[in-house]
């Protein structure tokens, strides 16, 4: 007798921990840069350089890279920039179960502020949240049948599980060129830039998948013209690619996270030798997970009329996909200038960062609450101080439909800014309209008792001899044909034959004739 087993590939979160890191440093303005009169806009990103695991401790080496756009008192070109980085080494303690495993570190820049200490020195303060995930890809060996030369009766039960088919990381480089339109001047120096990933779509194919989306590229640059010393330009770069992915198929469920990990903008001359082309190279990291649903026929019970079989049970843990969707949220709000800020002449650029603050499990799904941190760069009427920025916070709440979700469910929500537009209402107020996508995948946790082994013993023949060879039986409430056959050392097929039953349906009060097959060997 041998159990037939099937491996189900599962991805289990072994441990997770978060750490809030406070960074604070001062920086002197380089000698080649003019004095700072006013900080207009700051930008920050975190780079994780190295991750090392040792004795249940994780050493994370990284740095905060910042770029500051500021006004000076220079009349020729009042706008300048200053960049730098704040390095950090952080020791994170992990649970014993995670020692020696590969860890993935995610970062979130919760807040970054820059302030003037004096005209030649600024302070940079930031709060960085580091989240460490240790996942374990393992096989749950599940008994689905039994092989034996003897008369073994077994029964299966069906469950739907979601196993992980693909778990890998990959990168994709977007390379393109931006050609300035004829109404824009030549580039002397790029002062400030932002690159955002928007509207990414994935389509699964056999052993590959396609990706298409857009990069929103915004630059402020120093021009060569004295009439327009500072100019800006914003454009969209569409991209599409096919990524090889062994084991992928069209009917799988994808859960792919795209993150910009590197940006390089370089000014190059055009055919006439003028600095009017920007070479763009953007590195996109892809954390690829793909799942497939499977109907499992679990071995649920086993017995023999001629042997005493004792199943050895254990609990197995599975995941079953409940829902995957992309919920859309539309928000609309107004932002007003604070007293003393320069008036709005024209919107230059708007950016937004989505932060999910709370997720609550409700009867109808997941109630997601958060904010969009909006920062708008605008042109002022004063030519000596042409730019200013304003920040605003727009709250949102959205219920992601996921009926059947509970507190034990496993859910992952990826927010994305799909659309952002800002319109000037008057010199002191603007209207913001934004579209948010909440890509959600929810799994229900299943715990099922399964048969890990079967112990085999000889029957107690003295006890069997005392049992009648033929029994008239009246069906009780909890009885099934299987349980009756097992109790009286018979089989379901034998009971159906003896009682002229077409199927296994019986109801309380039915009368059955039972004979025990074990008599043949007594």
Round the Cα radius of gyration to an integer and report it.
33 Å
Globally, the shape reads elongated
Percent in strands: over 45%
Please state how the strands of the largest beta sheet are arranged side by side: 1-6-5
Following the backbone from N to C, one meets helices and strands in this order, namely EEEEEEEEEEEEEEEEEEHEHHE
For the termini, the CA-CA separation is 22 Å
The average pLDDT is: 89
Poorly predicted ranges: none
Give the number of DSSP strands: 20
Helix content: under 10%
Structural class: mainly beta
Biggest sheet details: 3 strands, antiparallel
Question: Count of DSSP helices?
Answer: 3
Structural summary, described in words:
Helices cover 4% and strands 71% of the residues. The chain has a 3-stranded antiparallel sheet, with no helix packed on it. The protein has helices at 461-465, 481-487, 492-498; strands at 2-28, 38-54, 57-71, 79-93, 104-118, 121-147, 153-179, 187-205, 208-223, 230-244, 253-269, 275-303, 308-336, 346-361, 365-379, 387-401, 410-426, 429-457, 470-474, 511-515. The protein is built from 3 helices and 20 strands.
Summarize the structure.
The protein has 522 residues and is mainly beta.
């Amino acid at each position: 007798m041998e159990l037939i087993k099937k491996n189900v590939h599962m991805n289990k979160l072994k441990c997770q921990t978060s750490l809030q890191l406070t960074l604070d440093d001062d920086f002197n303005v380089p000698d080649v840069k003019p004095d700072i009169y006013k900080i207009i806009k700051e930008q920050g990103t975190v780079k994780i350089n190295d991750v090392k695991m040792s004795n249940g401790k994780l050493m994370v080496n990284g740095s905060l890279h910042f770029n500051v756009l500021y006004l000076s008192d220079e009349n020729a070109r009042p706008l300048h920039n200053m960049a730098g980085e704040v390095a950090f080494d952080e020791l994170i303690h992990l649970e014993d179960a995670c020692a020696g495993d590969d860890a993935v570190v995610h970062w979130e820049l919760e807040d970054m502020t820059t302030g003037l200490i004096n005209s030649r020195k600024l302070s940079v303060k930031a709060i960085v949240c580091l989240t460490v995930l240790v996942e374990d890809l393992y096989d749950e060996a599940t008994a689905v049948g039994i092989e034996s030369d003897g008369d073994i009766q077994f029964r299966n039960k069906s469950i739907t599980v979601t196993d992980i088919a693909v778990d890998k990381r990959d990168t994709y480089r977007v390379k393109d060129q931006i050609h300035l339109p004829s109404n824009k001047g030549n580039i002397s120096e790029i002062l400030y830039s932002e690159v955002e990933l928007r509207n990414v779509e994935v389509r699964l194919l056999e052993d590959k998948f396609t990706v298409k989306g857009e990069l929103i590229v915004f630059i402020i640059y120093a021009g060569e013209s004295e009439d327009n010393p500072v100019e800006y330009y914003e454009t969209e770069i569409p991209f599409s690619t096919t990524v090889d992915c062994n084991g992928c198929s069209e009917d799988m469920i994808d859960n792919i996270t795209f993150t910009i990990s590197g940006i390089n903008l370089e000014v190059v001359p055009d055919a006439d030798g003028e600095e009017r082309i920007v070479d763009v190279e953007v590195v996109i990291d892809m954390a690829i997970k793909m799942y497939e649903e499977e109907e499992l026929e679990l071995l649920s019970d086993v017995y023999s009329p001629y042997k005493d079989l004792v199943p050895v049970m254990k609990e197995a843990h599975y995941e079953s996909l409940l829902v995957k969707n992309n919920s859309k949220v539309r928000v609309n709000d107004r932002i007003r200038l604070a007293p003393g800020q320069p008036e709005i002449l024209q919107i230059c650029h708007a950016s937004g960062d989505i932060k999910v603050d709370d997720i609550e499990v409700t009867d109808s799904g997941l109630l997601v609450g958060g904010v969009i941190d909006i920062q708008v760069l605008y042109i002022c009427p004063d030519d000596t101080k042409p730019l200013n920025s304003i920040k605003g916070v727009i709250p949102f709440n959205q219920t992601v439909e996921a009926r059947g979700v509970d507190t034990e469910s496993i859910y992952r929500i990826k927010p994305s800014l799909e659309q952002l537009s800002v319109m000037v209402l008057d010199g002191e107020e603007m209207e913001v309209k934004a579209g948010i996508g909440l890509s959600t995948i929810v799994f229900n946790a299943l715990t099922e008792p399964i048969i890990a082994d079967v112990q085999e013993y000889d029957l107690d023949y003295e006890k069997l001899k005392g049992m009648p060879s033929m029994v008239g039986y009246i069906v009780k409430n909890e009885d099934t044909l299987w349980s009756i056959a097992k109790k009286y050392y018979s089989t379901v097929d034998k009971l159906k034959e003896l009682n002229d039953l077409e199927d296994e349906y019986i109801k309380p009060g039915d009368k059955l004739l039972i004979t025990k097959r074990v008599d043949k060997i007594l």
